[in-house]
Amino acid sequence: MVINKTYISEKIKTERVKAGYTQEEFAERIGITPQHFSCIELGKSLPSLPVFLNIAEVLNLTLKDFGLNSKEKVNEKLDKFTKLLCSLNDAELDCYYNIMQNLIKNFESIKKTKAKKI
Fold first, then answer.
1. What is the pTM of this model?
2. Which of 54, 66, 83, 107 could cross-link with 30 by S-S, CB 3.0 to 4.6 Å?
3. CA-CA distance, 72 to 69, in Å (whole number)?
4. Distance CA 4, CA 57 (A)
5. What are phi and psi of 7, to 5 degrees?
6. What is the DSSP-derived secondary structure letter of residue 39?
7. pLDDT computed for residue 52 by the predictor
8. Long-range contact list for 26-35, CB < 8 A, 24+ apart?
């Protein structure tokens, strides 16, 4: 994966300004100090993953929007699913996780049943 720190910091600033937030307002919205956010926006440091996900959520952006390129093809469905997950609160995440676990178990059960018939 290629990470362009300058592009990321400039993208954050551009999108923050476009959304109408001051640095202070935005820092408060994503749960960090204005000083820390300033360092991120100036490209002096990269945000931690939780902070980065908060930034993406508040600005309604995907990893692709930040120019994060993988050597593999971009999976649009996975990007949409990731964006959905980032928008959920903890209780909703727990619920979705439980649903996914049950779906996986059911699919495995169906596969085993089909394999026995063959």
1. 0.56
2. 54
3. 8
4. 20
5. -60, -45
6. H
7. 92
8. 26/58, 29/54, 29/58, 30/54, 30/55, 30/58
